[in-house]
Amino acid sequence: MTAELVRGQNHPLPGNRLEIRVSAGTPVVAAVTLGDEAGRVVGDGDWLAHPGEPQLAGVEVPRQAAAEHRLAVDLGAMPPAVHRVHVLLALPGAAARPGAPADFGAAPVPRLTVTTPDGTGIAGFTITGLGAETALLAVELYRRQSAWKVRAVGQGYGGGLPALFLDQGVPDPAGAAEAIHTAVGHEQARSVDLPAPPTSAGRPADRTAGGGSPPSGTTGPVDYRHPRRRTAPARPGLVPPPREAGPVPPTPPQQPADAPRVPVAGDAAGRSMEERLYNQVWGMFEDLSRSVAAYRSAADFAESRFEQELDRLLADPRTRGGPAAEAARDAAQGKQAALVDQARAVLDRDLAQLVAEAEAVEPALPPEFAGWENPVWHGYRVPGRLPLAVRLGSLCLPEVPELRIPLLSRLPLERGLWMDSAEDRRAAMEAAVAIAARLLASHPVGAFAVHALDPAGSGATALAPLHAGGALVLPPPAAGAAGVSDLLSRLTDRVDLIQMARRGGAADDLPPGFDTAEQLLIVNEFPYGFDDRSVNQLRYLADEGPSAGVHLLVVADREDAAAYGPVLDPLWRSLLRLTPLPSDHLADPWVGHAWTYEPPLVPPGSRILTDVLRQLAAARPAYGT
After folding, report:
1. Where does 241-322 have alpha helices with state H?
2. Distance (Å, rounded) from C-alpha 308 to C-alpha 320?
3. Could you tell me the pTM of the whole model?
4. pLDDT tens, 322-346?
5. End-to-end CA distance of the chain, in Å?
């Protein structure tokens, strides 16, 4: 299935051999430039493929201006210095082709499709919103971590190919543009128009600019311009007057090719906006992780180099002391500072882009991905289907604490949660309830149920919103050792039954009236009220429960269970540890950064959690629950 891209969005490429198909509705020139990591052209003359010189290493473009093109690309044949392959479109101009549109605003909307050699679509991009531009950087194929992706760019240039080439660092942009137009002029006789649609008699039909049949005795070419972009033709020799609404706005300055793209929400692969946002959030997490890792590595290298230079100075008696030694030390410190400053400048550039992207993404997040403080919760509606993921908190790094990346977990949960209460028991229980309420709000009515084990009764205040809102139809939290044993036995029996049904190939033949909803068990003050049998049952639920739709949210201080020794080590390892207060205990799988986790707490004084639970309660009768 072809992924439809919007400006700035990228999509992975499954292989090296590709075709790029262009459908423009009017003859255009197709060209390709090869660029480095910053998008600047590389090589000495071997950086541009156009109708006059249609072949480069790994690239072949058509030899003529045409309404439709097929460009062949072999990314595996690209030189190592090439990191970006830019696909360009340009209008041939009235001099090369009389009657051609003066700009892309007067032409049909161009579309590009990246396909495999056999025509299987990978990604498509329709370039809308064009005006006075006569040249386009349409799409780019770029290398990232040894993998290639396609990005929809759609950047137009009112100054034509010279302005485009200037942005890409071409030494003689006007000369390069002239070479292309000269080649197009030589191939003018071979330019191909789209055929006019046939009439019922099989003859081409002529249409006027206003559409329909032309007046009697007149014929004319098809006018593809959008009605809102059509203007009256100017008389020869006269400059068209400005529009009545005011002067013609100046052409906006061209953005440098290596300038950061304007961030947009949903700038990632995915079949739905929800999936795109999910992938974009994790892409931001990975980008921040790698950018900070590069900065820290550069700073460590600068310090190591400085220490090595100091060692060399101390090893030589002539440079161990005196003015020469002081000058050498100052020079070494200067080199270290220069390296760190250079690395910090690169990091600051990346952080600025990520902060801007976060500012664009956060308002677009659905409630399940958003923090409780996000205004999207004020428009909350009970979902009709299970979302892709849910937010369990936020992550940040010390280099940029104001940039918080949502910690999203796929649904249904694949592992249990452990809210560590070592620092603050009351806050831990409140954070656990906030997560439980978020899980409830993310599921359709009747698709998620919550149970609570509170043997000592210390969590009654924190659990009150779940009952006061009326969203839950549950017995009071199980208290005492008897209540703990009874509830755990019922849940373990449930897991056993579901697993037996699946092993027997009868997963859909559960007993009549069996509740198929996902189950969440909140365990407060573990291991208080637990005997050896209950501990083993809890371990069983941690290991086998998620696959059967039974999930744990354990609120506990590990030191309270120290008497069990290593017996409980597998339990703690199977749960995702969260904290009620900010804590840098989560490590990413790429470079091992210690990320600071912040729980998804409700803002002080806010009633949003209560309002959401009341909406859930109001929706229950309509579903018969």
Report:
1. 273-315
2. 14
3. 0.59
4. 787 788 888 888 999 998 999 999 9
5. 39
